[in-house]
Amino acid sequence: MIDKFTGFDDSEDKINEDFEPEQINLRQLLNDDFISAHSECCTSIDEILERCGGGIDLEKLDSYSMERLNKAVSGCTEFSSWPEMYSEAIQEHLMG
User: For residue 41, how many C-alpha atoms fall within 13 Å in the half-sphere facing its CB?
Assistant: First the structure.
């Protein structure tokens, strides 16, 4: 039985050196195509936050309660919460 493979340590280091995670902002992730596909009444994240969130500003998202974000999302999309929508957006982006 082989206890250890040899010759792979260097290639693993090379892969790790070359890997740079993709940077994507929230507006790119929750783009108009994504919103349109998951909402019957809105075509943009700004429209969801305005119409169903009472004027939530995407640029100041950290200042709002999760309850308010969930209300906006559940009121204007097929999702029941902000985390559910965000998770789906990430999955769709990664599946590309």
Answer: 13
- Of 31, 52, 53, nearest to 43 by C-alpha is 31
- Domain region containing 49: 25-95
Q: Which two tokens stand for residue 26?
A: 């929230």
In a domain, 16, yes or no: no
CA distances from 33 to 6, 29, 73 (A): 47, 10, 16
User: What's the pTM?
Assistant: 0.75
User: For 55-64, how does the pLDDT look when each residue is reduced to its tens digit (9 = 90+)?
Assistant: 999 999 899 9
| Domain membership flag for residue 71 | yes
How far is the C-alpha of 93 from the C-alpha of 81, rounded, in Å?
A: 18
